Amino acid sequence: MMELQPKTPTIQGAAEMFIGNVYFDVLAKGDDMRVNIVRFTPGARTAWHSHARGQTLHVTEGVGRIQARGGEVIEIRPGDTIYTPPGEWHWHGASPDDFMAHLAMWEGGASVIDEPESTWGEQVTDGEYNAL
Q1: pLDDT(84) > 80
Q2: What does residue 111 show for φ and ψ, rounded to 5 degrees?
Q3: What's the CA gap between 18 and 122, in Å, rounded?
Q4: Is 62 within 8 Å of 99 (Cβ atoms)?
Q5: d(Cα 35, Cα 57) in Å, to the nearest integer?
Q6: Cβ atoms within 10 A of the Cβ of 102, count?
Q7: How much is the pLDDT for 31?
Q8: Structure confidence by residue, pLDDT tens digits, 35-53
Q9: What sections of the chain are H helices per DSSP?
Q10: Taking the CA of residue 24 as centre, how many other CA atoms within 13 Å lie in the half-sphere pointing to its CB?
Q11: What was the pLDDT predicted at 114?
């Protein structure tokens, strides 16, 4: 049966996991799937992190950047969909001059009880961020 889900409050990203102002809304948090819409102000970005079961991002607005550890910094735009495989360290965020929003989708819940869904590392340096 269809069920209207109540909206949860917007959450500001914690300083340990983000540089700059990042806000997210939890759209779905079921037993197996997580979906958030994440909004980054210009220059804001995640810290390095990985997901136990991978992550898919779908850019909905603005201009952003993403990088896998050891890879090139890539510019991302609305309509781009990016998949990072399980355990791959990466970061993502807005470009220096633009806001960026994306859907973040990853598996979680009961199937990963013995391991964290996401593992967070060090902050992305300005040099890494500006290597585009």
Answers
A1: yes
A2: -75, -10
A3: 10
A4: yes
A5: 10
A6: 28
A7: 73
A8: 999 999 999 999 999 999 8
A9: 126-129
A10: 21
A11: 56
The type of residue at 26 is V
Torsion sign across C-alpha atoms 6, 8, 9, 10: negative
Give the tens place of pLDDT for each residue, 94-129: 999 999 999 999 886 544 445 678 899 999 999 999
User: For residue 112, what pLDDT is reported?
Assistant: 46
Sequence letter at residue 132: L
CA angle at 79 for the pair 111 and 132, rounded to the nearest 5°? 95
**Does the domain at residues 11-114 carry the CATH identifier 3.90.1720.10?**
no
In degrees rounded to 5, what are phi and psi of residue 129? -60, -40
The single-letter DSSP state of residue 18 is: E
Amino acid at 65: R
pLDDT at position 30 is 76
Beta strands 33-40 and 100-107, pairing class: antiparallel
Q: Within its chain, how far is the Cα of 44 from the centroid?
A: 11
Please tell me whether residue 47 adopts helix, strand or coil conformation: coil
